[in-house]
Amino acid sequence: MKENSKLSKYASIFEDIKASDIMASKVVALTADKKIAHAKEMMKIKKISGIPVIDDKKKLVGMISIEDIINALEFNRINEPIRNIMTQKVVAIGLSETLSEIVDKFENYKFGRFPVVDDQCRIQGIISKEDILHGIIEKFNLIYIHDKKRSATLNSESSIITGEQLKIDEAEFHYNIETNDIGKAGTGAMLLKKFLKEKKFNDEIVRRVGVATYESEANVVIHSRGGGDIYGFIDEDRIIVRVLDNGVGIEDLDKAMKEGYSTAPDYVRELGFGAGMGIPNMKRFSDKLVILSEKNVGTHVEMIFYLPSQTTP
Amino acid sequence: MKKKVKDIQEILEAEVLSGEDKLEAEVKYVGAADMMSDILALAKPGMIVLTGYTHPQVIRTALVTDLLGLVVVRGKYVPPETIELAQQNNLLLMRTKNFMYSSCGKLYALELQGIDERKF
């Protein structure tokens, strides 16, 4: 990896992002027997600069780029089949290649886009630089740090989001979620809300903190099997809430982020929870959200709520 | 025209279980939901929510989202813990014999619209 490249510098932070996470899975592809003119029209309509060429089993056999089209136009070959001019030595990305590997490919081969293939070389998607950018932006709200990084981050006393010192014993608010009783879920969030109201924070932010904490607390009660803790920190310009548990962890955070996805048991659903809105609601009501989770080890949530400047107490 | 809690209470022939002093309050928004997470996602401060859910949890949800109050439909049994929690926090809690659908219909006919329709 080139150290001087900004892209590759950020790639190391986001190395858990895989090709399959960021690729566009709706791919425009053509078979090699189609006319070059057909590819030209496709590029025009779809506003793209390269098209993967596949065989009838969706196996990648080449690429045709806008340069190839220009050459074909110049030499009047536009009505020939694509196979006559396509690039056959194609650089493809594997589904599980990481962001840093992908960025390396962009830097080493100056192509605008790369096809993504499965282990049998069948086309699965396509990645352009914009897709990388979108992938990174999406992860900014939500960084899922895998096992190896987790313990290092969890054991430090700095904020996962800002890197600032956050000593748990200096938290202004602490509530121990000691119960698995779903009927009591939300008690900590209510107390935190009351605490913030007494501190004269504005209603809107107190409400946002309340809702997001409530959802997080409900997750601890429903999923952790063993309780957890809510910590509240007040800073000059923000409120930080941490919800920690040592429970079962989240197996697939991407799925958990989707509205309507839930692994909650039926008895919880009967109580009006488990609608699959928990994490989406936490994201909706907080300004920054980070979730660290490892299966069977626990979940660590940090949420930041920025104070509107004029209402800072 | 502005609607008050009292208007809702009258048309639904609702019994007031808690928060009697809110009867004169203006109702800005009305909604209906049984899923707590849906209330958390969509509720507005000052809203009245119709629900079939009577566990004390619904009171916590209402308090966290700054609801004006709740109306339990279908004349369902409301556990004393739920009423107690509402009373402790002075949250409006009413109960009507009307079913969810008819309750919503009656309120809609009062020109109380949903939050997806109301112009803010």
Task: Write up what this structure looks like.
With 313 residues, chain A is α+β, with helices and mostly antiparallel strands. Chain A folds into two domains: 6-139, CBS-domain; 141-311, Heat Shock Protein 90 (2-Layer Sandwich), CATH 3.30.565.10. Chain A is built from twelve helices and eleven strands. In chain A, helix 1 (6-13) packs antiparallel against helix 5 (99-108), helix 8 packs antiparallel against helix 9 (203-224) and helix 9 packs antiparallel against helix 12. Chain A is elongated. With 120 residues, chain B is an alpha/beta fold. Chain B has one domain (5-109): HprK N-terminal domain-like (Udp-n-acetylmuramoylalanyl-d-glutamate--2,6- Diaminopimelate Ligase, Chain: A, domain 1, 3-Layer(aba) Sandwich). Chain B contains five helices and five strands, in the order αββαβαβαβα. A five-stranded mixed β-sheet of chain B has the order 1-5-4-3-2. The interface between A and B is medium-sized, with 26 and 19 residues.
Q: Rough shape of chain A?
A: elongated
User: How many strand units of chain A?
Assistant: 11
**Strand fraction band of chain A?**
15-25%
Strand order of the largest sheet of chain B: 1-5-4-3-2
Helix fraction of chain A, binned, reads 25-40%
What is the count of helical runs of chain A? 12
Largest sheet of chain B: 5 strands, mixed
Structural class of chain B: alpha/beta
In CATH, the architecture of the largest domain in chain A is 2-Layer Sandwich
Q: What do we call the CATH topology of chain B?
A: Udp-n-acetylmuramoylalanyl-d-glutamate--2,6- Diaminopimelate Ligase, Chain: A, domain 1
- Under CATH, the topology of the largest domain in chain A is which? Heat Shock Protein 90
Number of domains in the coordinates of chain B? 1
Low-confidence stretches of chain A: 143-151
Q: Spell the H/E element sequence of chain A.
A: HHEHEEHEHEEHHEHHEEHHHEE
* Number of DSSP-assigned strands of chain B: 5
